[in-house]
Amino acid sequence: MRVGIEVGGTFTDLVALDGSRAIVTKVPSTPRSPDVGAFNALVAGGIPPAAVTDLVHGSTVATNAILERRGAKIAFVTTRGFRDILFLQRHDRRSIYDLRYAKPAPPVRRRDCFEVTERLDAQGNVVLPLDEGGIVRDLIPALAAGGYAAVAICLLSSYASPAHEMRLAELIGAALPDVRIAPSYAIAPEFREFERASTTVLSAYVQPVIDGYLDRFGDKLAGAGFAGRFSVMQSNGGRLPAVAMRRNAITALFSGPAAGVVGAIRQAGRSGRGDLITFDMGGTSTDVSLVQGGEAALAPETEVDGLPIRTPVLDIVSVGAGGGSLVWIDEGGMLRVGPRSAGADPGPACYGRGGTLPTVTDAHVVRGTIRPESFLGGTMSLDADAAHRAFQEVAAKLGTDVRGAAAAAIRLAVANIVRAIQLVSTERGRDPRDYALVPFGGAGPLLAAEIADELGISEILVPPNPGVISALGLLSADYVKVYGVTRRMMLDGAAPDALRTSEAALRSAAEAEFRDLGLDGGLEYALEADMRFVGQAFEIPVAIEEAALQGLTAADLAERFTAAHRRVYLHGGEPGRKAEIVSLRYSVRRRLDTLPEVRERDGADRTGTAPIRAADGRTLEAKLVPAATFSGAIAGPALIEGYSSTAWVPEGWSARRDEAGNLILRRTA
Amino acid sequence: MRLDPVEYAILSQSLIAAAREMGAKLIRSAYSTILREARDGSAALLDARGQTVAQAELIPMQLGTIGRIFGPCAAMFPPQTLKPGEVLFINDPYSGGQHLQDVFIFHPIHVDGEVIGFAASVAHHLDLGGGSPGLNPAAMDVYSEGLIIPPMKIELERDWHGGGFERLLRANVRVPHQTMGDFDAQMAANAIGVLRVQELAKRYGVDKVRATMAALQDYSETRMRAAIAAVPDGVYVGEDAVDDDGISDTPLPVRATVTVKGESISVDFTGTSPQVRTNLNAPFASTVSATVSAIKAALTSPDIPFNDGAMRPIDVEAPHGSLLNPRHPAPVRARMEACSRAWNAVMKALAKAVPERVIAPGFDTTTSFCLSHLRQHGWSVYLEVYGGGFGATAESDGCDGVDNPLSNCSNTPVEAMDQDFSFFRVTDYALRPDSAGGGAHRGGAGFVRRFEILEDGTKLALYSDRFRRAPEGLFGGGPGATGWCEVQRDGQRIDMRSKDQMELRRGDIVTLALGGGAGYGDPARRDAAAAARDFEDGLVTTAAGAA
Predict the structure, then answer these.
(1) How far is B247 from chain A (nearest CA, A)?
(2) Contact B333, B139 (CB under 8 A)
């Protein structure tokens, strides 16, 4: 049996596949010890661990360890003169008029930051040799006295040559064998010292936490008879055997959103769709990404709690607009939705847990697109009157009634998500009309048609069980590792050969690493070069397919880059301007032999009609359709109600269930 | 035209998003370190009259007055006479600009044959000619500071990329590869702005876009008025001073008289030093920007869009011929020092009215530091802008090692400098212990950067301030440390003035120390745990400072 378990902030989701039988379940998370919730999910699903052959796990453990500053006690070692790079950061402010501005706090104190005498130049040549005497005399005793669980090392220019970091790690390791060592060359070998140092420090900080967590969960599973493969999900959209996380845990951050995108891609792929805009609308936020030909784009960097993490991650834009986002009128009289949220507690007013402020979910209740009797398959009751009451004040301020205010809130929530989609599409030179919209998360399919209308998108694909798509994504994630390296070279006649040489080196390193993890053979490779005009500081990713690499010429490269630059900036540079390659991202993937197939689980079973209060004041009778048994086609207005989510099919749209089990919505008017 | 509240909310957020996208693309496609790393540029959408509607929040100093410099352009080239493909250029400080290095470009937004607004950007250019690379501390008038561009109408097809105007610019700048690339980044940002507004007009109708442009300004005005109304009426005075003019040792006082009356505020800088011979003068547009930024930062929540509406309740006056409103052709390159003192003077005045909302004086100085070297293939110019420690507030310690509140430049990574410059090397970049003023809340720490010079003939130029006069604490808080710059040569120490230049040799070590911010409130009331933490972390090294 194959099992995916995704531990989120509020719920732990499980999807299990036993032959053609799918088990889908949701249990409350246990934030104090998340492995308990994960194990509970197995119990709730009636799954004996001994029967599990393949377990893929995603969790917020690493992210929460950083957000709550519950990582290990660590030290930071850098080149003499640069002890404060983690505190100086980039010398700027995120909020320019904030007089009380504080920088994001690194997870290491200044007293725990140390220096060693050494210096390399930008080519990796030695300017000042590593002062080994000083290391033995001063640094190692200080590290021993500090009682650190891990030491993060980031020396200047180590992206160009790891020699000094390697030697330093060796010396520390020999003297302090119980201390974990995280050298930056092994974690983020890319230039820009603050970003590399931040990544390295965060990795060292969460590593012991991840190790402890995986140990506990692994022991618990083994004790219950589990003997299958155990993998962990990463932010790059792939999985790796849990043992690989012991070397570098930084990719375990933000695995949940990535798993959702992977689940959406796989599920849409079954219906033959590869160009997608996915949006995952949960309680507090919405995550958006753009997928081209079945591949989600990678971003070179992300951040946690304001601190940069330089590691390739799925390119996902998050906005503070979810079902729990508050609807309010600001001091200037403007209607706003979010970014503040009612959270899980008290939650939307309709939850009846003491919330009195209106949320997007309450707006759905007022409109009639969320029906109290069908919420979460009817297992959770909602207070519709509370939702109405919550909107009275906003309605009065807007000079309308409760229904009008709820309609306004929904339009604004739609607009917030539309802007997030524009960030990943129009702002990057992509036309959203060329893509199918794939909504998921509990709140996504309720708004998808209205979002599609705003963007001119004419097709929507709703996967089955849209509320637990992340867990499905875990099950269907390939083994993936992405290597990011700085390889600066001018785009001239020598570049193609240099690229081929770099690729060959990366390939043999990757093959060795995968072999080491027991993942031999069947590897696929993808190369992406970050390029820019000479003098620019921000690069544009340019994909170079494996097939194209052998015959690649400098002119091909220039043409690919100029086209990409034009798409984003509307110009391709002045004639004759020189370009360069700055860094490479090399992805290695081993695909799963078979992809899982799941069907919508049983949920609400009501039929008939329900009144929908439309924005224009009319009341429509929407047909009610249970998602689990729906087949054939239906014209809107209709509500297709499932266990974890409801799809809203407005007038002018039709829906059908296709052979792959997806709901396909199309605009008919 | 009446807007429904939802369409208004959607359209206004879309305009703000478009301005933000312009700003992001300006920075991301730029070439010089000053624009791409320091992000010394801004972008905005203007209505058809040239009033700012929405801006990318990058540099406070540039944000106040993009609209102000538009006036002289519009007077010469009325908006409705502009054709698609024509754009306006200007940098003249005496036509509403700030200093020559800030070049403004305006692209008209045409919808159905009519101009409904402008996409505008401004960028600080690394070098625009003038008496020496990057900055010319010896300039005695604006002519020696660089190329002056009066209001110009450019036809892109004819005048740019190989055209006459572009070639004229290219011929007059020392690092054309970077400067001309940065102009292209501005063009890209503006073209994006034009496109986005046209898309909105197509989707929602041009009338609604126009109405939103007006309503968004009214909205900011309403919120600014509400914030001012919460300040007790009265006349409040604040004063600070620039160290000197770079030649004599006499301080240059900056005095603000702030009058709050109902929902309006007026600031009069009478009593401020007369203009000076050196480049410390601040053109009036800069003075307005600094003043409005101080008022907005102190009184309003950060989410109010900064546009012309936000400025309507604020009136600023400075005597003509003063440091804050000089007569042509006084040099103005280092305007930020006087502007920063104007910010401090306004804050100190507001401290008497709303003590819980203000910030104590920080180092609050723009230190512009330039190393240049003439090489076989032309000039190599490194110019970076440094801040220092922020002042403390009633609720928080000042931020350590951060840019001036009127600015928001990032640093250049040392590894980027190692790649780009071979005539010097950074050897230290560190916080300065004991540089923060004590207080119930302490100021922010300053920092040090040290450079090893690797080639003879390297030129150093800098302007800074607060080398003599420390930032003063508020309500019992202690002063922040002053800044300094020295050159170590053959075992000897050469002290630099805060506005200075020097020719360097291989082996010289240049140390630049940026000062700290002042404290707020009685140091005896400092939280013991916070004090202990600073002591353990070595930011405060004396037991007295930690107590």
Answers:
(1) 30
(2) yes
